[in-house]
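Propose amino acids for all 478 sites.
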C-alpha cells in the first residue's frame, strides 16, 4: 500500500467529524490518489434492494435530492453479491490513443452486512498498478467499517427517536376519549412518526357492517383522494381476509398494484383490533425521509415500527368507542331507545331560551301510557315490547325536529318548537297513532289494555319558565 494515502485515509475515517464530512474527504483523497477521477459511495437498501448515492466527487447542479436505482443486474450488485472487487479496464486501444479508462468497484461489507459499493474511476496512461488497487481495496475495507458503524448508529438513533415519538404520542392518544379528536391525532401522528405523506383511517360501522373512512390526513386534491381511497380499499380487503398487514414497496413494480401506479409509490396498511375483532384499519402512503423530495419505499422495519405505534392507537380507539357508546346510552332509555329525562330537561331549557329569543311559540306535552298485558310463564317482557311499539308510534307521529323522550316508566315528554297551532293537531295525531298500535296489540293479545292520558302547556300563555310549563303539562286528561 502507498504509505501516504493509507495514512491519510485512516486519519480521515477515524476522525471525530460527522460521517458525511468523512465520506466527502475520503472520496476526495481517493480521487486525488487515482489522478483526479470521480469517486462515489453508493449504499445498499436491503429492503427495497436499491442502491442510492451517499456521496460523490462529481459536480451535479442542482444537486439531486435522492439518486437511486434498482440493484438487479448491475455491476454494483455483482461486486456486493460476490463480495469482491470488480475491475473494468480497457485493453485493445485504438491506434493513437495514449490514455485508458478503468472503473473499480469495491464492496463495502461490515459485520456480515452488505452496505454498499465504492466506485472509483481512473484515466491513466498505463494500467492502474496492482499496488494501487491493493491500497484502494484495503482503504475500502476501512471505509466499510466506518460506513457500517455509521449506519448502525443512524438506525439506532432513528429507532430511538421514533420510539420516543411513539411513547409521547401514545400518552396523548391514550388520554383522549373524544373519538373524532382521537382519530385526528392518530392520523397526524402516523404521518409524522412514519414520515408519510398521507393517512387514511377506517372504522367499522356496527349498523352497516362496513368499514367507512372516518379520518383523512394529507394534501391530495379531491380527484387524487378518490384514487387513493380505491387503493386503500384494496389493501383493507386484504387485511379483512386475514393478512396481518399489507406492505407495497413500489406500486409500479408489483403486478397486483400496477393499476394504481401514479397514485402513490408505497403503502402500509395495518388493522386496528379490539374486543376480538377488527374495529378499523390505518393506511399510510408515500414515505418522504428527512430532507428528501422523492418518495422512498416503506420497509419491513417500518411495518414493525408502525405496528408498535398502532398498539397504543388500538387501545385508545377501543376506549373511545366504548366511551362514546356509554355516553350515548346514558341519554337513551334501554327499553324504547328514546332519550331519557336528563336529556329532555336540558333540551327543554334550550328550547324555552330559543323561543324567548325568537319570540316563537312552544308546546310542552306529557303523555302517560298505561300498558296492561296478562303475564304468561316465560314471557314476562311483553309489556316492555308493547311500550316499545308505542314509543315508536309517538316518534313517528311527530315532526323531525320535535323532541320526544321517556321521562318515567309510563310517561313520554314531548317538546314541539314553533308549534303555532298548539295542541290542536299534535294530540289527535299522537292519539290516533297510539290507538292504531293498541288495536294491533289487542289483535295479538285480546286481553291487553293500552290507556292514554295527555297534558299540555304552551309558552308563553301558560308560563314563561320551565317550572310553570312542567306543572301545567302534568295535569293529565284522557
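Proposal:
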Amino acid at each position: 500500500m502507498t504509505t501516504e494515502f493509507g495514512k491519510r485515509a485512516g486519519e480521515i475515517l477515524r476522525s471525530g467529524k460527522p460521517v458525511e464530512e468523512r465520506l466527502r474527504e475520503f472520496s476526495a483523497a481517493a480521487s486525488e490518489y487515482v489522478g483526479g477521477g470521480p469517486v462515489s459511495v453508493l449504499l445498499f437498501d436491503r429492503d427495497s434492494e436499491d442502491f442510492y448515492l451517499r456521496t460523490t466527487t462529481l459536480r451535479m447542479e442542482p444537486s439531486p435530492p435522492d439518486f437511486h436505482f434498482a440493484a438487479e443486474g448491475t455491476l454494483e450488485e455483482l461486486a456486493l453479491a460476490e463480495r469482491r472487487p470488480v475491475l473494468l479496464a480497457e485493453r485493445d486501444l485504438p491506434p493513437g490513443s495514449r490514455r485508458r479508462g478503468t472503473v473499480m468497484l469495491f464492496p463495502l461489507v461490515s459485520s456480515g452486512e452488505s452496505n454498499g459499493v465504492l466506485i472509483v474511476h481512473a484515466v491513466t496512461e498505463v494500467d492502474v498498478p496492482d499496488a494501487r488497487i491493493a491500497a484502494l481495496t484495503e482503504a475500502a475495507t476501512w471505509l466499510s467499517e466506518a460506513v457500517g458503524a455509521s449506519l448502525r448508529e443512524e438506525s439506532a438513533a432513528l429507532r430511538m427517536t421514533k420510539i420516543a415519538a411513539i411513547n409521547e404520542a401514545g400518552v396523548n392518544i391514550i388520554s383522549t376519549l373524544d373519538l373524532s379528536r382521537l382519530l385526528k391525532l392518530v392520523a397526524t401522528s402516523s404521518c409524522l412518526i412514519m414520515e408519510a405523506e398521507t393517512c387514511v383511517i377506517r372504522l367499522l360501522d356496527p349498523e352497516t357492517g362496513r368499514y367507512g373512512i372516518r379520518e383523512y390526513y394529507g394534501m391530495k386534491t379531491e380527484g387524487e383522494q378518490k384514487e387513493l381511497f380505491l387503493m386503500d380499499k384494496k389493501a383493507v380487503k386484504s387485511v379483512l381476509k386475514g393478512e396481518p398487514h399489507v406492505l407495497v414497496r413500489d406500486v409500479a413494480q408489483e403486478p397486483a398494484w400496477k393499476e394504481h401506479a401514479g397514485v402513490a409509490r408505497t403503502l402500509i396498511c395495518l388493522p386496528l383490533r379490539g374486543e376480538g375483532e377488527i374495529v378499523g384499519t390505518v393506511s399510510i402512503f408515500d414515505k418522504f425521509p428527512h430532507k428528501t423530495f422523492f418518495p422512498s419505499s416503506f420497509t419491513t422495519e417500518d411495518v414493525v415500527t408502525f405496528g408498535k405505534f398502532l398498539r397504543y392507537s388500538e387501545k385508545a380507539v377501543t376506549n373511545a368507542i366504548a366511551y362514546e357508546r356509554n355516553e350515548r346510552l346514558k341519554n337513551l332509555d334501554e327499553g324504547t331507545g328514546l332519550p331519557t329525562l336528563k336529556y329532555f330537561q336540558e333540551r327543554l331549557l334550550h328550547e324555552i331560551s330559543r323561543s324567548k329569543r325568537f319570540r316563537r311559540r312552544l308546546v310542552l306535552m306529557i303523555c302517560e301510557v298505561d300498558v296492561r298485558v296478562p303475564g304468561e310463564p316465560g314471557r314476562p317482557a311483553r309489556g316492555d315490547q308493547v311500550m316499545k311499539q308505542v314509543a315508536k308510534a309517538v316518534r313517528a307521529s311527530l315532526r323531525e325536529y320535535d323532541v320526544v323522550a321517556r321521562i318515567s316508566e309510563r310517561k313520554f315528554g314531548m317538546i314541539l318548537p314553533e308549534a303555532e297551532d298548539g295542541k290542536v293537531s299534535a294530540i289527535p295525531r299522537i292519539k290516533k297513532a297510539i290507538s292504531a298500535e293498541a288495536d294491533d296489540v289487542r289483535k295479538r293479545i285480546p286481553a291487553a289494555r293500552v290507556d292514554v292520558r295527555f297534558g299540555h302547556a304552551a309558552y308563553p300563555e301558560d308560563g314563561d319558565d320551565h317550572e310553570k310549563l312542567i306543572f301545567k303539562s302534568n295535569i293529565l286528561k284522557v
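The mean pLDDT is 83. The first helix runs from residue 3 to 14.
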